[in-house]
Amino acid sequence: MAVAEGAEPISLQEQEESQRSNPWFDAWRLFRRNKASMVALGVILLIVFIAVTAKLWTNIGLIDARGGAVARHTVNPLNVAPQDSYPDPGLAARDDQGRNPYWCGWLTDEALVSVQDKYCSLPEPDAEKKQWVWLLGADSNGKDWLTQTIYGAQVSLAVGVVGATMSLVVGLIYGMISGFYGGRIDNAMMRFVDFMYGFPTLVFIILMQVYFTEVAREYQDQGRGGIVGFILDLNKDMGGLLFLFIALGVLNWIGMARHARGLVLSYRSKEFVEAARAVGASNRRIIFIHLLPNIIGPLIVLETLAIPGYIFTEAFLSFIGLGVQPGTPSWGAMISEVRQRGGFFSNRHILLVPSIALVITTLSFNFLGDGLRDAFDPRMRGT
Amino acid sequence: MSTHARKLSGGSLLESVRNAGGTVFQAVGGASMVKFLIRRLLAAVPVLFAIMLVTFTLSHLLPGGPFNAVGQRRMPDYVVRQLEEQFGLNKSLLFNTPNDGYFPDGDDWKIIGYRDEVTTLGGSAGGDIRQETRRVLKIDLLDSQFFTYVWDVLHFDFGPSLNIALRDQNVSVTDEIATRLPVSMQVGVFAVLLGFLLGIPLGVLAAVYQNSAIDYVSMFFAVLGQATPSIVLAPILIIVFAIELDWVPVSDQQNQWREGPELSLYYLKILALPVLTLGTGMSASIARLTRASLLQVLHEDYVRTARAKGLRERAVIYVHALKNALIPVATILGPLLAAVLTGTFVVELIFVIPGLGESFVNSVGARDYTMIMGVSILYSIFLIFGNIMVDVIYTWLDPRIRFD
User: Fold this and answer.
1) What are phi and psi of A60, to 5 degrees?
2) Minimal Cα distance from B366: which residue of A?
3) What angle do CA A236, A241, A246 make, to 5 degrees?
4) DSSP labels for A280-338?
5) Interface confidence (ipTM) of the complex
6) Distance from CA of A122 to the nearest CA of B (A)
7) Cα B247 to chain centroid, rounded
8) The dihedral of CA B348, B333, A308, B280: what is its sign?
9) What is the C-alpha end-to-end distance of chain B, expressed in Å?
10) How far apart are the first and last CA of chain A?
């Protein structure tokens, strides 16, 4: 008796839940069960939070985006053998005990002993915005490595998210038009996609980036007005990201357009679409109410899984000096700097920082994508 | 169809050979495949033309030229002009319109006036010494840099390299590619081999022991491998194996890459790290794909039938299931080819391998137009043929898919 009484409300509740369930809610419920994906989601949110609030960390003095003359006095961990030519920070910076209160970052023990007294002194850079610590050391220009890593997250995330969004939007619209209207339009549009499919993407991205970089450099020398000047200014303010977005976006929507078209084709002849058509639904209604909610899920999954690709491309381009503008922190540029300064041979931790950041980010997006795929398409579970 | 044909045929050697050929022909799709191949190859022609057009325009739009690129020693203007005249860079870019100032000699074209052609003979601080010749003004729209280049390419002449280091030695783009492509290919081919040899067994293991520790461990490493880009993996491998353990050299010190492959311990040593860098990522995606595909196939009816008739589990998996499970894996060859191209850029830069990727990056910097074009065309051809090959393999492996 008691058992039956207890059972009743539970079944009611279940019914209630199933009534208000929709595909998105179901997907979220499935996704929540996947521990790895939930952890990945948490990590991504954390990275996003750190990247977005980078300014805040600067203001409270944990990190410092400036470098150059002010911070040059810190030790250069990439060049750990203390050089005689290295500028002495000056005794004025030291405190009453003749020592500087700032920590120099991670150094090998010998290096620490030999250089600490000489170089760890630092003049107070700015009374209001002082940096407490160089947690992970600094680069050859004295820029804090942790700061660069955090600002590098901004670049990687921006490239990943914007690249994926652009490709999703363009590919979705293109693929839906092609798949929905079919016939001659479809034929022409898909011929164009096939056509673009033979283009070697990376070759074009490199060529475009070189072009953009050179144009931006010329502009710096000469100055230019009008719309071109505006775009160049905007790109400069974004640290070269605008042109990177353009270069990445030009060819990457192709695969997405193919997928979107395939999905539209498979759903277009389903019963529920024909039923909607039979009761006189307009094209717009069929597209936005019936088709879009069904195909958007798998496409979002595909784009999430493609995000690491965009991040890799940006890192690679920055690695060969064709990515963001010099001076803009980027993980690829950081790894490249370590390599150029012979960082493979000494002070490897400095190489590990951007590497680990890069791997954790892409790993998280991979797990997130897997979780989303399982959630949106339960048939694919565990595959 | 093919078995039927075999029954009817006689016993002579010639006929059986012809039959065997026919069987293979039928197996790969017969007449429909020939039609398909022809159609695809014809479709590739405009794509290649467009790629040439876009690459050509884009590379010539880059500020500076091969003779006054950034970072080069500045040459006197008249030398630059002479070089441009020598390599035809003084012609108009895409179309030779009358306003562009260059008019060729020809017989079939309408004379629209006269003009003075200027040839730079030399120069000094006082100015250039020029020779002016009065010539007939004619229109030949196609006598431009681009169409001259296309015409040369149609004759398999990819022009001389404009790179400052190679120009004086008269090295043609074809020569340069011929020496560099095999180097890139060695790394690429071994990486693909490693990818398949490591990826497929790993994927099969993970699928067979689904949801066991083996599955989780191998899939974790697969995801990790997929998430690790070359620019991260290569430095780590260098630090661990080249610097710390000192098993292999950081990069080739004996000019082995240029002298060609020679099976020796040293060759394997310099090959190891680049191949490992490229192959790890590949094997990771192949392993995941194999696992997913095999798991799907293991739920098919015919696998249940095979089990029901009492076959051993090993026979079910390796004979019945795996064959079909590898179909999607085969189709990854196309994207893989693109990945090899992408990957070689990084790997060649880090490991200082004199391959094509390195050459491309350098030639973009040096505004070596002919080299940029040559490498781009080569990559496009690879890509296009890779895509066609995937379609053929797909149809060959799965006869339910038809070419039409």
Assistant:
1) -85, 0
2) A210
3) 115
4) T--HHHIIIIIIHHHHHHHHHHHHHHHHHHHHHHHHHHHHTT-SSPTTS--HHHHHHHH
5) 0.77
6) 32
7) 31
8) negative
9) 19
10) 44
Residue B167 has a pLDDT of 67
User: Which of A44, A187, A190, A207 should one mutate to test binding to chain B, selecting the residue with the greatest count of B CBs within 10 A?
Assistant: A207
Per-residue confidence (pLDDT) for residue A361, from 0 to 100? 93
Q: Where are the beta strands (DSSP E) in B139-214?
A: none
Greatest alpha-carbon pair distance for chain B in Å reads: 97
Roughly what angle, to the nearest 10 degrees, separates helices B369-397 and B333-350? 140
The alpha carbon of residue B91 and the mean position of all alpha carbons in its chain are separated, in whole angstroms, by 30
A140: tokens are 């050859």
List residues in chain A touching B: CB distance below 8 A: 194-195, 197-204, 206-208, 210-211, 214-215, 217-218, 308, 312, 315-316, 319-320, 332, 335-336, 338-339, 344-345, 348, 351, 355, 358-359, 362-363, 366-367, 370, 380, 382-383
Question: Which residue of chain B is at minimal alpha-carbon distance from A364?
Answer: B227
Task: Give the span between the Cα atoms of B280 and A168, in whole angstroms.
Answer: 29
Residue A380 CB coordination number (10 Å): 16
Cβ proximity of B322 and B330 under 8 Å: no
One-letter identity of residue B139: I
Q: A49 exposed, middle or buried (CB, 10 Å; 0-12, 13-18, 19+)?
A: exposed
Distance CA B326, CA B380 (A): 27
- Report mean pLDDT in 10-residue bins for chain B, 404 residues: 43 62 61 81 86 87 72 69 75 68 49 69 75 68 80 84 72 83 83 89 88 87 87 87 81 70 76 88 88 85 85 82 81 71 76 82 82 86 81 74 58
The tokens of A248 are what? 């990445």
pTM of the model: 0.77
Q: Which residues of A touch B387 (CB under 8 A)?
A: 197-198
Closest among B182, B219, B227 to B199, alpha carbons compared: B219
CB atoms within 10 A of CB A143: 21
Tokens of A109: 């023990």
SS3 B337: helix
Decide if B286 contacts B329 (C-beta within 8 A): yes
Residue B113's H or E segment, with its range, is strand B111-124
